[in-house]
Design goal:
Blueprint: H1 17-21, H2 32-56, H3 68-81, E1 90-100, E2 105-110, E3 115-116, E4 120-124, E5 129-133, E6 137-139, E7 142-144, E8 146-147, E9 152-156, E10 166-170
Antiparallel strand pairs: 1-2, 1-10, 2-9, 3-8, 4-5, 4-10, 6-7, 6-9
Length: 172
Amino acid sequence: MFKGPVPTKKVKAKRSTSQSRYVGLPAGKKNKKTKAKESSSKSATKRRRFAKSYLKSPVKKPIKIKTKAIKSVAINKLKRKEKIVKPVPEFYVGEITHYFQKISVVVVKVSEHPILIGDLIHIKGGSTDFTQKVASLQVESKDVRFARKGELVGLQVIEIAKPGDKVYKIKK
């Protein structure tokens, strides 16, 4: 006897991982928009991580960077650290002949360029190397505003200087 169709349990087929994410699409195929969003967000996080690690770690070998944004950030960061110092023009004024330690005064024989009150000078020698502004000048115990070529001038200094050290005028 035939009783009709045999009732069976309905079994839902398990979907693959790619199907469960993208409902309505066949297995293995992704929507172009979602694919683009997913790849851009992944690459953006990778770029951020790479940029942070690149900037934190000291650069030992040159690294090829593909994206322009990270490259410009890294180069700007390096430029800020490595400032290029231009050499300041200095003109030879003369040589120190005496140094008086108690009153911190040197006697300078002016041989090339004149020296004025307010000038920035650089005193350079074997053990001395400092820069200071000229506060006072004296020629034969009289205060003067400038000293010409060939004069012996007394000049108060902020550090120890020795006879034989050279005096240079720094041009602004």
